[in-house]
Predict the 3D structure of the following.
Amino acid sequence: MNDETLFEEAAELLQQADALLVCAGAGMGVDSGLPDFRGNEGFWRAYPALARAGLNFTEIANPRAFAQDPELAWGFYGHRLQLYRDTVPHEGFALLKAWGERLPNGAAVFTSNVDGQFQAAGFDTVHECHGSIHWLQCLKGCGRPPEPADALRPDIDETACRWRGALPRCACGALLRPNILMFGDGGWDGSRYEAQAVRLQSWLRRCERPLGAWAAEIRVAPGRVAGSNKAPARRWIGPNNEPATPGDPANRPGPSGCDPKGAESVVAPLAGASSPGCAPRLGSSPLGSQRNPGFLPPTLLVVELGAGTAIPSVRRFGEAVVLEGGGRLLRINPREAALPRSLGLSLPMGALAALRGIEAALQRDDQRGG
Ligand SMILES: [Zn+2]
């Protein structure tokens, strides 16, 4: 199948969807110029001082590194914090956001990336399953909740990969560390991310809802392309045949479970809380299980981007959502694109190239009168 055909098929999946779940791994950030730390060679090219110290990614991304050589560990994380702050999310983030805004249930994100790029791009419902570099926690686990890293101004000797000046300290006097799930990390405070997980589950349950009150206001337009054998695209039409604005909260079903301030306003429990579950807890009713003549069933599209198999949290989550809740999976991955056809469609390429290709296919479709 050539790329154009893949883009057309992917665009069709998107046109048939009610909701967009973005599942992103490190490959999503590569097109913004971020390193993905794939393999020692790439990692050490990005951080030659760590090559000289003989430390690989799993050894520096480790709470032990903060205990043993805090200036070096903070040199690594301080550099990354500044890098992520300075990085502008690539165009693919805006495309995903725009697509989500056209769907009745909008978009949500599940990501292992700690860089905060989805929030920077304006996404509200984001579950960062490995935490965030923009938050800090006590290395000793004194019980104080995580705090934002906003006031932290990294001053790094990049040649030596070492933090200059006073290290960040908790109010208890112990060292602060990034609120990220590291390797061999028994002390990660996952409370912020549990709150994010709750919001994501609430969104998923809303997507899973069989056709409800809002569906009565949203009808599928008849076939729109004369002579086309494609399925008619969904058109969101209000009760008086005016185009509905699915992204408008007024058109959304029920009270929103997605308070944008929810995650931040939650008072975090004490450190040592269990890590957030990565498996979705969907109800027993699969998406679209209750068909209604004249209506298409609600359909969730999972778009997985740059999620590898080495640490498969993101792949597993997206697959589980589709297997347990219904919907389709669009896997975008230049190296590990294998996917059973029954689950969806695979695009063996980078994130930005794929998203641009799909957008172009959507625009061609619109121009044909779709
Ligand atoms: Zn403390």
The two ends are 23 Å apart (CA to CA). The chain has one domain: 3-367.
